[in-house]
Design brief:
single chain; 362 residues; alpha+beta; eight-stranded antiparallel sheet; 16 strands
Length: 362
Amino acid sequence: MSVLMVTSLGDLVIDLQTQKCPLTCKNFLKLCKIKYYNGCLFHTVQKDFTAQTGDPTGTGTAGDSIYKFLYGDQARFFNDEIHIDLKHSKTGTVAMASAGENMNASQFYITLRDDLDYLDGKHTVFGEVAEGFETLTRINEAYADGKGRPFKNIRIKHTYILEDPYDDPPQLPEFIPEASPEGKPKDEVDDEVRLEDDWVPMDEQLNPGELEEVIRSKEAHSRAVVLESIGDIPDAEVKPPDNVLFVCKLNPVTEDEDLHTIFSRFGTVSSAEIIRDHKTGDSLCYAFIEFEDKQACEQAYFKMDNALIDDRRIHVDFSQSVAKLWSQYMRKDNKGNAIAVVVASNVVPQIILPRIALEMLR
């Protein structure tokens, strides 16, 4: 008589001692039939000792026998069925995790090594793992905290009864769900942060290029959060406008009016501003061109990159500046204006704003 137990780390086939432990085996089989174990955590894994499960709350302090469902609260626990010839002598022994003498409910454990003889006579041994020892190895190697709780959840996903010698009690069908439940049990106590059983490290999900892009994006966001916290930007999630071009490699003799005239052929230019040294007024050889609409900005980007202006090949890219947004924010709060230093979008995206900018321009 056996049960197939599908866990998040692999399958286990458990053979049961139905002749010697009928009360315990019937409890186990009928709990499997009503899908009571679906989603249950292996809430305690002690390396080279035992892996314990069967509590829908995941705390190791709860669980009900099938007899409670059938006969009421007074039947929550049932008696031990301890036999001297059923021992904890080998890896994969399955036994009840009782709350005390004759206090068996739903929790059980599986041994993770041979010769745990000191457990003999204390718990009801009612089965053994017949297949899936590689799964037991994976469970045994799981990283756990000082209480034995795995840092990455290990769950019973499904249970399938392969052979059941016991007739179903007439009350049982009302407890059998229409569909096998998935996910964690509704009674699970979620008081500790753990990685879910289906969690996969990011470096195993993405190729190297995608992973690098995610890391760069996270680094940029972290820098933005720091700038927000020190008051250099209004919001870490602020985005640069999509109707502004960044133009660099300008000739120092080029004036704002020249850029305004040149870029106006693509659409209405709201402003063309060459950034200058705040002390000398000399051109820093880069500028921002703001258009009234995004389409004109895109056309200018495609047409003007590497164009010749005053004997200089300019470079054009979409702006990463939030200077205008910052200035509006500062005016709103009556704090004055601010300036910004930016990088083009083909460099690692980052925002270098007022306080840092002033230091760089000195």
